[in-house]
Amino acid sequence: MSMREINRAPVNFFEAYKPRASKWTHLLIASLVWSIVGVVLIIRGSFYAVKPYGWIGLLYCTPALILGFVKARWVLDKTAHKIIKRIEARGDHKCIGGFISFKNYLLILAMIFLGITLRKSGFFPAWFVAIVYVAIGAGLLFSSRLIWMKWRLRKKFAS
After folding, report:
1. What are the domain boundaries of the chain?
2. pTM of the model
3. pLDDT digits over 77-103, tens only?
């Protein structure tokens, strides 16, 4: 056994088998997550509007869409830019789940908990739940455009 082999530090199992991806894959995953969650929230919110009020309940979704676009421009666009910068700063071959910071993971968990609480508590009428879900979903879907646009730029950098 050579001296180099003896002095080599043991490889951490999790470090060795961590799923890694390029920054373009991270951008694709972030785009898909934001888009899919946005669509799911819009659909669920629309369901909460239609179920008790019939198709007329979709009228509650119209102001929610406008509210979602406003939230996207003032709040979620900033978050999308932060995620893009984080992905770019981390570079290639980083953990596939690391495109979101630990703080943002905690925020996501809090939002999921609040969404479930809002829905299951019974304190809020269905139209209110519909407005919240559709507004957040529309905001996520609209702000995902920034991450999608950055992901599409990969073709320019590949050549």
Report:
1. 18-158
2. 0.82
3. 999 999 999 988 888 878 777 778 888
